[in-house]
Design a protein that fits this description.
By secondary structure, the protein is an alpha/beta fold. It has two domains: about 5-85, OB fold (Dihydrolipoamide Acetyltransferase, E2P) (Beta Barrel), CATH 2.40.50; about 165-325, Hexapeptide repeat proteins (UDP N-Acetylglucosamine Acyltransferase, domain 1, 3 Solenoid), CATH 2.160.10. Helices cover about 20% and strands about 25% of the residues. It has helices at about 105-115, 130-140, 165-175, 180-195, 205-215, 260-265, and strands at about 5-10, 20-25, 30, 35-40, 45-50, 55-60, 65-70, 75-80, 105, 125-130, 215, 220-225, 230, 235-240, 245, 250, 255, 270, 275, 280, 285-290, 295, 300, 305, 315, 320-325. A six-stranded mixed sheet has the order 12-15-20-23-25-26. Strands 1-8-6-3 form a four-stranded antiparallel sheet, with no helix packed on it. The protein has a four-stranded antiparallel sheet with strand order 5-4-2-7, with no helix packed on it. A hairpin with a 4-residue loop joins β4 and β5 (about 45-50). The longest helix is centred in the middle third of the chain and has 18 residues, at about 180-195. The chain starts with a strand and ends in a 9-residue tail after the last strand.
Length: about 325
């Protein structure tokens, strides 16, 4: 078979290592133009559309409704037509989601079975996603059989009264491995008092206060007083030498959703470090999400939302941030 360009699933959120391929916009073997929509995939938060990077004949690798890992091959684009026997076949599925031909994601199927829902509730959908099932549950749909509504392991709990106060304190105490007294002192002194002082202190005092909070800071750095450098786990932030964080920038190493979203598994807890390598520049009102490493001498443009690592000597922009410029790397290390 002729040489082909592989199109892989991009990383769009820090939470998702596996997504669901929701819909193909072209048939297997069809010739597509550069820039036209190729397929859609579903993350835990949204549906993303991927366009064809160039013209070619489409070879579908992952069928609709199947789960696929970030970075795995979704399809290939061939410069010349190829034999159908050489490509992964695409199962024909009548429009309207006829019985037996409907694509249902694994998470959606598990949730339907655990809650005992009637599959006919989704007969109008060609592809049933977890979000569709949750929408039906929230509308008050009843199980198909009496007694079948007992939730199974991992099923989203029914929305209930909001938790807080002592419950949050004990949960945080278990997560951090310290007692409630230490946790309360840590919150008042480090998170609240020092977090407030870094926003009003002059530059000469601003950086030592960030270090006292736990932020690891190299030489010659600048952090604007209006920047938010992690609110609860500042020890997870590392800055190299000559790093600049400008006005309104946000660096967050954790995501802690409401109780219902966490306990249902829809938005899991995330706690991953952020590293800004030497000479990196974080632009005005940009956002760096958990687990991101910004490479040496790279620029995060104003307003960018960075979800994945930034290679050295590049500029990223947009939401989600993508590489828009590459800088020539100096020939000698440390240049």
């Amino acid at each position: 078979m002729a040489e082909a360009l592989e199109v892989v699933i991009p990383r769009e959120t820090v939470n998702d290592d596996v997504v669901t391929l929701a819909r193909w916009h072209a048939a297997n073997g069809e010739k597509v133009r550069a820039g036209v929509p190729l397929f859609e995939f579903e993350t835990s938060k949204t549906v993303i559309e991927v366009e064809a990077p160039h013209e070619g004949h489409l070879e579908i690798v992952c069928p609709e409704g199947e789960e696929i890992g970030v970075g795995e091959i979704a399809c290939r684009l061939h410069a010349q037509p190829f034999a159908a026997a050489d490509a992964a076949p695409r199962a024909a599925r009548p429009a309207g989601g006829a019985a037996g031909s409907q694509a249902i994601s694994r998470k959606a199927r598990l949730l339907i079975e655990e809650r005992g829902l009637d599959p006919a509730l989704f007969s109008h959908l060609e592809v049933v996603r977890e979000a569709d099932v949750i929408r039906v549950l929230e509308s008050g749909a009843q199980p198909a059989k009496a007694g079948a509504a007992k939730p199974g392991p991992g099923a989203p709990p029914p929305p209930g009264r909001a938790k807080g106060g002592l419950h949050d304190l004990m949960t945080a105490s278990r997560e951090r491995g310290h007692g409630p007294v230490w946790l309360a002192f840590n919150y008042v002194f480090r998170n609240w008092l020092l977090g407030m002082l870094v926003r009003v202190a002059p530059r000469g005092i601003n950086l030592p206060l960030h270090r006292l909070r736990g932020v690891k800071i190299g030489r010659g750095c600048y952090i604007d007083p209006t920047a938010i450098v992690e609110t609860a786990y500042p020890e997870n932030i590392t800055l190299g030498d000559d790093v600049r964080i400008t006005a309104g920038a946000i660096l967050m190493t954790h995501i802690k959703a409401p109780h219902y979203l966490r306990e249902s598994g829809m938005v899991p807890n995330v706690l991953k470090p952020i590293v800004l390598e030497d000479h990196s520049f974080i632009g005005v009102n940009s956002v760096i999400m958990p687990g991101v490493r910004v490479g040496r001498a790279s620029v995060v443009a104003s307003g960018a939302v960075v979800l994945a690592d930034v290679p050295p000597y590049t500029m990223v922009a947009g939401n989600p941030a993508r590489v828009v410029k590459r800088f020539p790397a100096p020939g000698a290390e440390g240049g």
